[in-house]
Design brief:
single chain; Rossmann fold; 2 domains; eight-stranded mixed sheet; six-stranded parallel sheet
Length: about 325
């Protein structure tokens, strides 16, 4: 792969994620700039470009990919188009940064990986939580043996339905199977959870689940339960419900050890709680202003030949495998 001196990004998609979570960080990273954006809605692309001082805008993805001023592609569309755009970009010789989940199926992920390896073009994935100080602290606590030998991992995510979920004529894209890959909010949100625990404990090699639609607010499943086993023998369990009463709301991962327990959240960033033989502790770690900035910096360093970013499509694919196993896709 040719090293880049300045990474000149073209955005495919300019929706909410680029407005808040990711977009503002790109020009703040040294040797990184955004030179073009694309949306199928030309007016939306033009508006985004003007508001963010970006010179070029497109309504055609291929035109943006072929722009000679663009040397790297950020894909911020719903998952159904991730694989198509990623392959298009890599075949044009341009590295890719894709929003999570990498694709709508494990099969599509393996296709992306084949092209990436064949062409020697990297594809990175936005599992940015790996690089946030909050989760790095959790990993540090585990590695230093604060709770002794890890015995089990237990996860729970429970939220009430949103007002939009009742809109049968204009459902959120996460509830549209052909766009999000099936599994509703589970396929979008559980990926971050599984990426984090696999980042800490290695790949999951067995997973089974039960999925159902308990409330029938929308057509896809709303409640999920699963068990899984890592390659090192560690086991875990998890449950998700996206239609529960407010009183059941929960966002936590518990790491159980023979000398204590670590409890943390994935989306709410509640204080990390450590229960151990030496006493109980709460650790508060605030997020940086732009949560994707650390990962984007790692990607830019990688493309400049100044480091290695391990948050790539190959490392992201096991999470899709687990999600598909729980959903019974194979």
């Amino acid at each position: 792969m040719v090293k880049l001196s300045t990474v000149k990004w073209g955005f495919i998609g300019c929706g909410e994620v680029t407005e808040k979570k990711s977009g503002p960080a790109f020009p703040l990273v040294e040797h990184s700039e955004v030179v073009a954006v694309m949306s199928r809605d030309k007016n939306k692309a033009e508006s985004y470009a003007k508001r963010h001082n970006i010179k070029k805008f497109y309504s055609d993805a291929q035109a943006l990919i072929e722009d000679p001023d663009v040397n790297a592609i950020y894909i911020a569309t719903p998952p159904s188009s991730h694989a198509t755009y990623a392959v298009m970009a890599m075949k044009a010789g341009k590295p890719v940064y894709v929003e999570k989940p990498l694709a709508i199926s494990y099969e599509e992920c393996t296709r992306i990986n084949r092209i990436s390896r064949l062409l020697d073009i990297p594809c990175f994935v936005a599992y940015y939580r790996r690089y946030l100080p909050y989760f790095q602290k959790v990993k540090e606590l585990v590695n230093e043996g604060r709770i002794g030998k890890v015995l089990s991992v237990q996860m729970r995510l429970v939220v009430p339905p949103r007002e939009l979920d009742y809109n049968s004529t204009n459902l959120p894209w996460r509830l549209q199977p052909d766009v999000a890959g099936g599994g509703g909010y589970f396929y979008d949100l559980a990926g971050h959870q599984f990426d984090l625990i696999q980042y800490m404990f290695g790949d999951i090699i067995e997973a089974e689940g039960f999925c159902c639609n308990m409330e029938n607010i929308y057509k896809v499943q709303d409640t999920f339960n699963a068990a899984f086993r890592f390659a090192n023998g560690l086991t875990g369990s998890a449950s998700w419900c996206f239609v529960a009463h407010e009183s059941s709301r929960a966002d936590k991962i518990e790491i159980l050890g023979d000398k204590g327990t670590i409890v943390f959240s994935v989306y709410n960033y509640l204080p990390i709680r450590v229960f151990s033989e030496s006493g109980n502790e709460e650790i508060t770690i605030p997020n940086p202003k732009h949560v994707q900035m650390a990962l984007i910096q790692q990607i830019v360093n990688h493309l400049r030949g100044e480091g290695i970013c391990d948050c790539d499509s190959i490392s992201a694919t096991p999470s899709n495998w687990v999600l598909d196993k729980i959903l019974g896709k194979f």
